[in-house]
Amino acid sequence: MNVPLSALSFNALHDRWVRLIGIPVAVLPFVLLTIAAYGYDGRLVALTIVWGLVSTTLLWHLLLWWVVRVRMEYPGRLNTGKRIWKTFGGYSLFTVFDQIVETRLLYQFDPSGRIPEPAFPDDYLLPIAMALFFVVVVGSYYEGSYNLSQYRQAVERAEAVKKNQLLAELTSLKNQVNPHFLFNSLNSLSALISEDRRRASAFLDELASVYRYMLQASQRPLVSLTDELAFLDAYRYLLQERYGSTLCWQIERNLAASDLLLPPLTLQVLVDNALRHNSLLPGKPLIITIRHLASNRLEVSNSLQRKSVQVATQAGDLVD
User: Fold this and answer.
1) 3-class secondary structure for the chain?
2) Are 225 and 257 in contact (CB under 8 A)?
3) pTM of the model
4) 306 beta partners
5) Cα-flanking dihedrals φ and ψ of residue 258, to 5°?
6) How many CB atoms lie within 10 A of CB 281?
7) pLDDT digit string, tens, across residues 80-115
């Protein structure tokens, strides 16, 4: 299997501190074992430390190379079982071979003459067992970290899919709002022209502002809260001409939240939803409240005045 050089970068594992701490910790038990077995000799201890650091560093990086290689062959959470078997199988083979070589070389280069020629397999079993234990611990850390990163990526992908779905639904709503809203607005304008030309002119100006914003909104994924509230002011004017005193507003304008970003027409969609599902009565007006909460959250709520006749709704339904 061809492994790209970029995939063999150990820095991609983000384990620098694990190596800097883990390698000396791995060597320490073998130094103590040497002292306990053969007594203290400065030359032998120095050789054990130096040789241990060098050989452990080489083995560690060999195992890291193996980790990257196996991950490329069995990536993702679905291949966890196969990846673990092959990863730890390779760990075991590399570690056993390494300890056999290390034990033999330590005897060959012993400056104190205290180490007898190692007998196979008795003198090899303890070093191999100690090394395998440490390799399993460290290998479990790498596998656990990899699975955690895979889980986080899966969560991020799921959130991205959910966000895209919401954006698609919002786009669908924005595409449907124009003809429906225009029909209602033209009816209101027609009634005003015959009653009060001045109010009709003001209504037409606000209607133009609303449609100007709608045309711009299709080109912008996000707008500031200030722009959205300015649009809502024009939209409210049109609604008040239609519903009069049966519709009331409580809007908190927080300067600290003026730069918050949200999808365009968000407030209109929420307002339309409130109008669709609630009754508007002269003696009991519908109250729509918009306020800024902590943690950069915006709350849109309304008094609950459900219609006596249940309204059938589908995604994208708008206020009549």
Assistant:
1) CCCCHHHHCHHHHCCHHHHHHHHHHHHHHHHHHHHHHHCCCHHHHHHHHHHHHHHHHHHHHHHHHHHHHHHHHCCCHHHHHHHHHHHHHHHHHHHHHHHHHHHHHHHHCCCCCCCCCCCCCHHHHHHHHHHHHHHHHHHHHHHHHHHHHHHHHHHHHHHHHHHHHHHHHHHHHHHHHHHHHHHHHHHHHHHHHHHCHHHHHHHHHHHHHHHHHHHHHCCCCCEEHHHHHHHHHHHHHHHHHHHHHHEEEEECCCHHHCCCEECCCHHHHHHHHHHHHECCECCECEEEEEEEECCCEEEEEECCCECCCCCCCCCCCCCC
2) yes
3) 0.51
4) 278
5) -65, -25
6) 11
7) 899 999 999 999 999 999 999 988 888 888 888 888
Q: What is the mean pLDDT of residues 280-298?
A: 86
Helix axes 225-243, 197-217, angle to 10 degrees: 140
Report the C-alpha gap between 182 and 166 in whole angstroms: 24
Tokens representing 52 are 């241990």
Whether the link from the prior residue into 121 is cis, omega within 30° of 0, is yes
Cα dihedral across residues 115, 57, 24, 63: positive or negative: negative
| Contact in structure between 114 and 48 (CB atoms under 8 Å) | no
Q: Where are the domains of the chain?
A: 5-158, 196-302
